[in-house]
Design goal:
heterodimer, A: alpha/beta, Rossmann fold, 2 domains, 6-stranded mixed sheet, B: mainly alpha, MetI-like fold, 13 helices, binds adenosine-5'-triphosphate, binds magnesium ion, AAA+_ATPase (chain A), NitT/TauT family transport system ATP-binding protein (chain A)
């Protein structure tokens, strides 16, 4: 159930990549989380958030992470992004330990946190500009804006965007760096149901085309089952892996397929939101 | 300013030309349907025409030159307002300023009649419009050079103080060690009015000019430093996190994240600094450099040349209000992303 750490996600291992769609093999962006425990200090006392977490995620794989609110999902992504150092344990990408943030690992934050003093276009330009590549990658900025459907609002300031548009802008800002590992922290949380479906499709197409490794944190079990190769269910804080559910149904998926319905019920049961919770 | 889409919608709403009208607690003034004539401006034309007639037709009871020229100027003002009110492109703006144009006409009539025409407010303490003009014109070489000297001292002192303040504020917010050493100095010496150091500065500095520049610099430096430091310390961690995951190094974090995020506060500091630099400027000129408008005011007052003193005060108003306007314009440009920015 728990991904075993021996089967490392080092550069040699490409077998875990989810299927042979698009036919392009990618050998980067594999993740290994080895016995990671993380504690925050809250009111001077340690608050354990992750409890000896061990995971292996193959390169090019699309993994969803679900878990109760406050269980430590965002913390896991922050550790992978290199924004926090774990209290114990280690994290690797392609066999190399994570030592800090790196543009090859992009994080789409739970809050869009766009820079309010920059227009949408200039927000998307942050990545290329910070890496000193703005001159050569200006076209890519325009293409990425096109991709998330914000071309018409390229010159708007964040205060002029709706919540969903801001999230799409944040997504574009992460994608423009063409990351090997894309960490998504409920990136579609603020979208209405229709836009959400459309964006899920876009995200999936993007992933099929580019085959980066994707880790999607979400509250929406349907979303997880529709998109991911596998769903990791975390427990309440401190988070452990409750289940690691492979999703093998062929894409495109409709969540009312029988197999997915069973998996959905299983996951909701684990999260304490299954049929029992309603009686 | 706004997204082009939004701008289009707004522009489609009226045909009288845009600009001038302000959004805010008073509502969108003047954004009506169709063309509305600027009534107050037409009234201002009348007021200024009357002012011209009074100036030209009433006999002077004070001994003043240029009366007929002044009457012609008033008539030209009336004519200019009339022409502008009829030009559709600026009609919106003229409508906005119409009441003020009329009010300034009243003020002119009161001033001219109470001095030149009836001698109720008499020399040497008061002067008529043409008397003020005569005083300024007769001494224009000295006034212009005083103005330019004040401007130079203001620009040099303010720029040095602003740059020093921003740099000090950034390094205090960024490096704990700098903060440890600079903070006590800032908090003890900073609040002392820069002018209190004048005697000491005059002794220490090689020239009174460099001393005055230094005095202005510290007057600006203090508020700019305090507000830059607090502005940058208040920048949320999330902004740095985002920039770092996108590949930003520390230079990028300082200049492209921290400074823009703190800019609203930095501008507050700059405005406070500009205010105290005016005070320091006048004191420095009166007691130190013996040059500039501050010195000119002091000097003319010394031998009761009040009309010339008023002339220098008028130029002082132009200097200070002009400097404020420039800074406000800069701020409006730099902070145009802020939703409800108060404009100058
Ligand atoms: N910087 C911090 N300092 C102290 N405690 C923190 C900090 N960040 C997070 N926590 C705590 O860690 C726990 C896990 O937080 P985290 O944001 O990882 O949860 P989450 O699973 O993403 O929740 P949600 O689904 O609501 O976003 C929470 O109890 C939170 O209070
Ligand atoms: Mg979270």
């Amino acid at each position: 159930m728990v991904g075993n750490s021996v089967n490392g996600a080092g550069g040699t291992n490409g077998s875990t990549a989810g299927g042979e769609v698009a036919g392009r093999t990618v050998t980067v962006g594999g993740v290994r989380v080895a016995g990671v425990t993380h504690e925050y200090a809250l009111h001077g006392r340690p608050l354990p958030v992750l409890d000896d977490l061990t995971l292996t995620i193959g390169s090019g794989e699309f993994t969803a992470v679900v878990g109760p609110s406050g269980s430590g999902k965002s913390t896991l992504l922050r550790l992978l992004a290199g924004l926090e150092t774990p209290t114990r344990g280690r994290l690797f990408v392609d066999g190399r330990p994570i030592q800090g943030p790196h543009p090859s690992r992009a994080l789409v934050f739970q809050d869009p946190t766009l820079f309010p003093w920059r227009t949408v276009r200039r927000n998307v330009e942050v990545g290329p500009q910070a890496r000193g590549k703005l001159g050569e990658q200006r076209d890519r900025v325009g293409e990425t804006l096109e991709l998330v459907g914000l071309s018409a609002f390229a010159d708007a300031y964040p205060s002029q965007l709706s919540g969903g548009m801001a999230q799409r802008a944040a997504l574009a800002r992460a994608l423009v760096n063409e990351p090997e590992l894309l960490l998504l922290d409920e990136p579609l949380g603020r979208l209405d149901a229709l836009t959400r479906l459309a964006m899920q499709r876009e995200l999936l197409n993007l992933w099929l085309a580019r085959r980066f490794t994707a880790i999607l944190v979400t509250h929406d079990v349907d979303e997880a089952l529709r998109l991911a190769d596998r769903v990791i269910v975390l427990s309440d804080r401190p988070a452990r892996v409750l289940a690691d559910v492979p999703v093998t149904a062929p894409r495109p998926r409709l969540t009312d397929e029988a197999e997915l319905r069973v998996q959905r019920r299983h996951i909701l049961d684990l999260l304490g939101a299954g049929a029992d919770a309603w009686t | 300013m706004t997204a082009s889409a939004i701008g289009d919608v707004e522009r489609a709403g009226h045909s009288g030309g845009s600009g001038g009208s302000t959004a805010g607690p008073y509502g969108k003034g003047g954004r009506g349907v169709g063309f509305r004539p600027p009534v107050a401006a037409y009234f201002a034309v009348l007021v200024w025409a009357v002012a011209a007639a009074l100036t030209l037709l009433l006999p002077d009871r004070q001994d003043v030159p240029y009366t007929s020229a002044l009457g012609v100027v008033a008539a030209l003002v009336a004519l200019a307002v009339l022409v502008l009110a009829l030009v559709a492109r600026v009609a919106e703006r003229i409508r906005h300023w119409g009441p003020w144009l009329a009010a300034s006409g009243y003020w002119f009539v009161f001033w001219e009649v109470s001095t030149a025409k009836t001698d109720r407010l008499s020399v040497p303490y008061f002067t008529s419009p043409q008397g003020l003009w005569e005083a300024m014109w007769n001494d224009h070489d000295l006034l212009v050079s005083s103005f330019l000297n004040s401007l130079r001292l203001l620009v040099i002192g303010f720029t040095l103080g602003a740059v020093a303040g921003v740099l000090t504020g950034i390094s205090m917010a960024w490096w704990r060690r700098t903060d440890y050493w600079v903070h006590p100095i800032l908090m003890s010496l900073g609040p002392v009015p820069a002018t209190a150091w004048l005697p000491l500065i005059l002794v220490i500095f090689p020239s009174t000019y460099s001393g005055s520049v230094f005095m202005m610099t510290i007057a600006v430096w203090f508020p700019v430093t305090v507000l830059t430091r607090s502005g940058i310390s208040g920048v949320g961690r999330a902004y740095y996190d985002v920039a770092q995951t996108l590949g930003a190094g520390s230079g990028y974090l300082v200049w492209r994240v921290a400074v823009p995020a703190a800019l609203p506060q930095i501008f507050v500091g700059l405005f406070m600094g500009l205010g105290s630099s005016f005070i320091t400027l006048v004191v420095a000129e009166m007691l130190g450099v013996k040059d500039g408008l501050g010195w000119y005011i002091q000097w003319t007052k010394g031998w009761a040349a009040y009309p010339r003193m008023y002339g220098a005060i008028v130029l002082m108003i132009v200097l200070c209000a002009g400097a404020m306007t420039v800074l406000f314009k800069l701020r409006s440009r730099a902070l145009r992303w802020q939703k409800d920015l108060v404009r100058w």
